[in-house]
Every structure is written in structure tokens, then in C-alpha cells.
Amino acid sequence: MTRPPGSNGGARRERCRCGRTVLRQLVGNRAALDVTADADPLSAAAAAELREPNRLDWCVRQRKGGPDLAWVDRRNHPADCDRPHVIDHKCTAPAPAAHAHGRGQQGRRPRNTSVPEGQLTLG
Ligand SMILES: [Zn+2]
Ligand SMILES: [Zn+2]
Fold first, then answer.
1. Which of 39, 87, 91, 98 is 20 to 30 A removed from 120 (C-alpha atoms)?
2. How many CB atoms lie under 10 A from the CB of residue 47?
3. Which ligand is nearest to the CA of 36?
4. Half-sphere exposure (Cβ direction) of 96: Cα atoms closer than 13 Å
5. Which pTM value belongs to this model?
6. Rounded to the nearest whole angstrom, what is the distance from the C-alpha of residue 108 to the centroid of ligand 2?
7. What confidence tens digit (pLDDT) does each residue in 55-68 have?
8. Which ligand gives the minimal distance to the CA of 58?
9. How far from chain centre, in Å, is Cα 123?
């Protein structure tokens, strides 16, 4: 078994485009998975109830550098785990537009795009 070469620096807190705070981390031993999980901690049991085939929950270990997400492996993971768990983030924001710009906007798009006056050069 090969270990990742000290690459696991833990999870980063990010603001998703839907406005929620999420934890992002590459998790995995062989093939790392780019995980985006809700930052809200749940109990292991609550997270297990939310789990779906395509929505995993993650065991959160606190490390010096911050939270660190780990696979919930039934063989190694205690059913009565007392660590916080998080569940994969289900994004409610619409798919990003092809020409995404203006970061800092939070998923709410006005229907009419107003054009700055200086750009109207017809005439
Ligand atoms: Zn756990
Ligand atoms: Zn989102």
C-alpha cells in the first residue's frame, strides 16, 4: 500500500456558489476524490441517514491544521463514532454559466442584464 506523500493538508473551507460554506478536500488512498461537503457537522447517525448511493458522509478529524475528512469505512469506522460527520454537499445553485464572471455574487442572477451605457455605440 502506498501512502499519499504527505499531501493531505486537511479540508479547506470555501464558500460555494450557492452561498453555503463547504469543506473541500481531496480524500482517498489510491484515487483521491475531490470532496465537497457541507460544513455543518452532524452526528454519525444523522449523517448515515442522509447518505445516498451518490452522496457519502465523511468522518471529520480535527488536526492541527484544521478539519480532515476521512472515508467512512465500515470495517474501520465505529458505528457509534463520536466524531462529527459531514455529508456531501448538494448544490442548489444553478449550473454555472459558461461565461462566469463577477465573483462575490451569490447565485442570484437578475433576469435582465443591464448594459453599461458606454457600450452602446450603435447609431
Ligand atoms: Zn466517524
Ligand atoms: Zn453549493
1. 98
2. 24
3. 2
4. 11
5. 0.68
6. 12
7. 999 999 998 888 99
8. 1
9. 49
Check: CB of residue 66 under 8 Å from CB of residue 23.
no
Backbone angles phi, psi at 44, to 5 degrees: -60, -40
Percent of the chain that is helix, strand, coil (3-state, to 5): 10, 30, 60
Separation in Å, CA 110 to CA 7, 42, 106, 107, 113: 41, 34, 11, 10, 7
CA of 8 to the centre of ligand 2 (A): 23
Cα 46 to ligand 1 centre (Å): 11
Q: What's the pLDDT tens digit per position in 72-91?
A: 987 889 878 999 999 999 99
The C-alpha cell of 21 is what? 460554506
Q: How close is the Cα of 50 to the center of ligand 2, in Å?
A: 17
